[in-house]
Amino acid sequence: MRTMRRSNRRWLELLMALLAGISVYPLFFIVSMTFKTPEQMAGSPLSLPTSFSLHNYIAAWENMRFYAVFGNTLLITAGAVLLLTVLGSLASYPLARRTEKVYYMVYITFIAGIMLPFQLAMVPLYKLINGFHMVNTYHGAILIFTALNLPLTIFLYSGFLRTSPKELEEAAKIDGCGLFRAFWLAVFPVVKPVTATVVVLCSLNTWNDLIVPLLFLQDQSYRTITIALYMFVGEHVTDWSLLFPGMVLSVLPLTLVYIALQKFIIKGIAAGAVKG
Predict the structure, then answer these.
(1) For 41, what's the count of Cα atoms within 13 Å in the CB-facing half-sphere?
(2) Partner residues linked to 233 by β-bridges
(3) What is each CA distance from 193 to 37, 146, 149, 171, 211, in whole angstroms?
(4) With a threshold of 0.70, does the pTM exceed it?
(5) d(CA 123, CA 137)
(6) What CA–CA distances, in Å, run from 187 to 146, 152, 164, 182, 216?
(7) How confident is the model over 4-51, as pLDDT tens digits?
(8) Which of 259, 143, 159, 273 lies closest to 200, judged by CA?
(9) Tens digits of per-residue pLDDT, 238-268?
């Protein structure tokens, strides 16, 4: 039996290593392409680069105006994630704690937003934002991304809060804290895992989105990373020597955020989605 278990374990480890290699290969392919000349990309895309020059990265940085588009994307993403963390946690608290039917109906209404595609409300949303003169503004984009990601945020926070002990806020109220102070001092620190999950998932949704910046940030001074990358893709010709380095530069900040918060992410998803 021990020999069979060891053999099965080795086969399982081999399978996991194979799956990991399959998952890592696209990333390796993209990074290797960034060091090739256009001729090497066209002639032998699957081969290793013959040299390791940063010329493509420098050209992509300058053509994208990366410092500007990175600042725009970071400002919009950080603003949306901050609003989502505050509004999502506050809205989820009564939805998770109260048992009346009206709170359940409000919760279902929010969750329905996960199933409705953004394209369904694209035209009326543009008319609304244009009517408030928020096209080509940072706060307009931040509010749109906040609204788009709020259903997922409430879904995760509500599921996690249903599993958290109520004794924490009760003890805070006994010590003289009001409702809001009890929430921020006693409850919010407990939801750190799901907060990390919300930060990563909503950052990904905002950072990588193309449709919202394309529609609502038409001015070049408000261009985001995805729009800058889209400029390298033409109808007949695509500049791969700039597109691949631009992609690596774009995903690097989010990769660092994920590495910093990875120990909280799985815990937050499991507690917020499965137990909830």
Answers:
(1) 19
(2) 238
(3) 44, 20, 18, 22, 30
(4) yes
(5) 18
(6) 22, 20, 8, 7, 36
(7) 677 778 888 889 888 888 888 888 888 888 888 877 777 777 777 877
(8) 259
(9) 778 888 899 999 988 888 887 877 776 666 5
